[in-house]
């Protein structure tokens, strides 16, 4: 609903009340999208400025987080995404290939016991693995598995069909599984 | 190989099975396959471990920087101030109907300075490079407010000096480098900054920003160059390249499109060496196509 009649101060107050509580979560999404804390902070600030400028077009009291995430994604996709290639991505096919061979081998050992050791699979290790997943797939994992958006909401944020989200999510989880399996193997928790 | 059935593994369906997305008939099919396929049972275990790992990430999120909200609020303040300033700037189509604009302009500058003061109080570590890059982006997107238009460096200089920023504003003549002055404005860096905008015939816009301060307060640069007694601090921010250097008590910054970094650094070197007397260019016009700008268009 357009509240053009609001005074600037009332508009500002309404915006802060709706949008500001999401700042920390947006920052985390930005960090997982962009990788570097400085980029994440820039991304969040730009997201808020754009949101503020387009606040009159937002239906107040609806899903502010999804609205902000959509803006964040658009800023990220336009400014950062094409500009970067992550060094870790290149060898991912190899990682998946090795994982696939292990799955097919009777030497395979579940990494399930690793959690009990308490030294593997901490948030930081998973975040590090996540950074090595290509952008397209990682974004789907971040939005659905970490931000707990529905497929439909994630599709709206990314601006793609729901089927694409499911497909990217599947591929992202798979790569992550391969990476985590390899992490575990390298730490000696599973037999090779 | 431990696959007792065949070479086909319904990986995608396994993921959807785990998500509870399958219809009963599909579910039965997947479960029948699982019963006979060790490889897919292992895959399922690894995928489930991955989900568990992701749940741990949700449970222990990385911390957000403590000043995050204050930074956003300061950015909103600056935005409000620039909207105020935009409303107050005399435009040709408003002059007749809005005589108040003449005294609103200094008022708007006051708002901008108040926003700076608030920014300085609330933001823990502002990044001047990111701020200049943001201003450059706004300029490139036509969102940056121009308070003075014109191609005469002396006239733009006089106008910016009138804002009383507390340092000697120097409008650089980039004519020899093939850049035409298009105007100037006020920014919020330091205790208030002066901005000038240039356009190359083909190269696009370049922003020059000056404020009282020290390059020693800058965060670590992505790159540094020493030349002719000057140190040039090069930052890459958000699709832009920003080069800072010190001239007396004034910090100068040039911002332009990334990808033309070397040319921008060259331009900064040229600029820093330019004597003050060169700012008075009798006709304000420029000779296009001289050296560093040719590289900018590459």
Characteristic terms for this protein:
heterodimer, A: 192 residues, mainly alpha, 10 helices, B: 298 residues, alpha+beta, eight-stranded antiparallel beta sheet, 9 helices, 19% strand, elongated, disordered N terminus, disordered C terminus
Provide a short characterization of the protein structure.
The complex is a heterodimer of chains A (about 190) and B (about 300). In chain A, about 65% of the residues lie in helices and about 0% in strands. By secondary structure, chain A is an all-alpha fold.
Oligomer: heterodimer
Classify the secondary structure makeup of chain B into a structural class. alpha+beta
The tally of beta strands of chain B, per DSSP, is 8
Query: Which percent bin holds the helix content of chain B?
Result: 40-55%
**Major beta-sheet overview of chain A:** none
Continuous helix count of chain A: 10
**Residue ranges of chain A: pLDDT <50 for 5 or more in a row?**
113-119
The first-to-last residue Cα distance of chain A is 59 Å
Q: Shape of chain B, please?
A: elongated
């Amino acid at each position: 609903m357009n509240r053009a009649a609001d005074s600037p101060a009332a508009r500002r107050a309404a915006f802060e009340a709706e949008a500001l509580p999401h700042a920390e979560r947006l920052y985390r999404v930005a960090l997982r999208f962009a990788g570097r804390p400085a980029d994440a902070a820039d991304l969040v600030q730009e997201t808020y400025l754009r949101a503020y400028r387009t606040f009159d077009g937002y239906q107040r009291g609806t899903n502010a987080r999804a609205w902000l995430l959509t803006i964040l994604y658009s800023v990220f996709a336009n400014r950062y995404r094409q500009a970067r290639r992550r060094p870790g991505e290149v060898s991912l096919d190899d990682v998946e290939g090795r994982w696939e061979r292990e799955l097919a081998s009777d030497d395979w050992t579940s990494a399930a016991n690793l959690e009990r050791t308490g030294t593997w699979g901490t948030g930081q290790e998973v975040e590090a693995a996540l950074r090595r997943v290509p952008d397209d797939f990682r974004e789907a994992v971040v939005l659905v598995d970490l931000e707990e958006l529905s497929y439909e909401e994630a599709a709206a944020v990314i601006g793609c069909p729901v089927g694409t989200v499911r497909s990217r999510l599947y591929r992202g989880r798979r790569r992550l599984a391969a990476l985590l399996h390899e992490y575990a193997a390298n730490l000696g928790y599973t037999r090779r | 190989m431990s696959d007792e059935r065949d070479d086909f593994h319904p990986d995608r369906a396994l993921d959807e099975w785990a998500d509870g997305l399958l219809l009963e008939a599909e579910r039965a099919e997947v479960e029948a396959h699982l019963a006979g396929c060790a490889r897919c049972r292992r895959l399922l275990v690894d995928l489930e471990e991955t989900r568990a790992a992701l749940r741990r990430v949700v449970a222990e999120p990385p911390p957000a920087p403590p000043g995050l909200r204050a930074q956003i609020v300061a950015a909103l303040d600056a935005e409000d101030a620039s909207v105020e300033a935009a409303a107050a700037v005399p435009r040709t189509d408003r002059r007749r109907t809005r005589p108040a604009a003449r005294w609103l302009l200094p008022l708007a500058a006051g708002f901008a300075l108040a926003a700076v003061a608030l920014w300085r109080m609330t933001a823990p570590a502002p990044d001047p490079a990111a701020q200049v890059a943001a201003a450059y982006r706004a300029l490139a997107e036509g969102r940056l407010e121009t308070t003075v238009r014109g191609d005469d460096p002396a006239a733009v200089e006089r106008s910016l000096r009138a804002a009383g920023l507390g340092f000697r504003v120097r409008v650089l003549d980039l004519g020899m480098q093939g850049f035409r002055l298009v105007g100037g404005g006020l920014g919020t860096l330091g205790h208030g900054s002066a901005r000038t905008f240039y356009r190359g015939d083909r190269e696009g816009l370049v922003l020059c920003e000056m404020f009282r301060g020290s390059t020693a307060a800058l965060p670590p640069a992505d790159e540094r160059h020493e030349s002719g007694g000057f140190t040039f601090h090069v930052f890459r921010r958000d699709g832009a390249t920003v080069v800072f250097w010190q001239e007396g008590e004034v910090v100068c910054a040039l911002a332009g499109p990334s990808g033309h970094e070397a040319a921008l650094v060259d331009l900064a070197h040229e600029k820093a060496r330019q004597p003050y007397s060169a700012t008075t260019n009798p006709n304000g016009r420029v000779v296009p196509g001289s050296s560093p700008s040719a590289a900018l268009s590459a």
